[in-house]
Amino acid sequence: MLVVMKRDATKDEIDAVVARIGELGLSAIPLPGAERTAIGTFGVAAREYADQLESLPGVAEIVLPSFAAARTSRAPRHTTSAASDPPDSNF
Q1: What is the DSSP annotation of the chain?
Q2: Does any domain span residue 87?
Q3: 84 assigned to some structural domain
Q4: What's 13's domain CATH number?
Q5: Which of 6, 7, 10, 20 is disulfide-compatible with 60, CB 3.0–4.6 A?
Q6: To which H or E segment does residue 69 belong?
Q7: Residue 35 domain-assigned (yes or no)
Q8: Based on C-alpha coordinates, what's the Rg of the chain?
Q9: Which domain holds residue 37?
């Protein structure tokens, strides 16, 4: 799960979100960016706490991973090597 902070979130608000994530038994990794900070979270129950975290001051949104999209983007398991495939002329 990724907690995206508002552009104007203060250091105290970011620290409070990191602390709350820790209280929930999750690991938090602040990811400061040029315009805003995001906080990556790791833990088995991260999805269960999305509503609680989204209501904290300074939080803009919660981004949850889409496991279905990740599964569909993987290459098929049984493929032939690229060297034996004819070139694709549909470019």
Answers
A1: -EEEEPTT--HHHHHHHHHHHHHTT-EEEEEE-SS-EEEEEESTTGGGGHHHHHTSTTEEEEE---HHHHHHTSPPSS---TTTSPPP---
A2: no
A3: no
A4: 3.30.70.1140
A5: 6
A6: helix 67-72
A7: yes
A8: 19
A9: 2-72
Whether this model's pTM surpasses 0.85: no
* Residue 89 forms part of a structural domain: no
Amino acid at 26: L
- Quote the number of domains for the chain: 1
Rounded CA gap, 64 and 90, in Å?
Answer: 35
Q: Max alpha carbon distance in the chain (Å)?
A: 58
Average pLDDT over residues 69-78: 52
DSSP state, 31?
E
pLDDT band at 48 (very low <50, low <70, confident <90, very high): confident
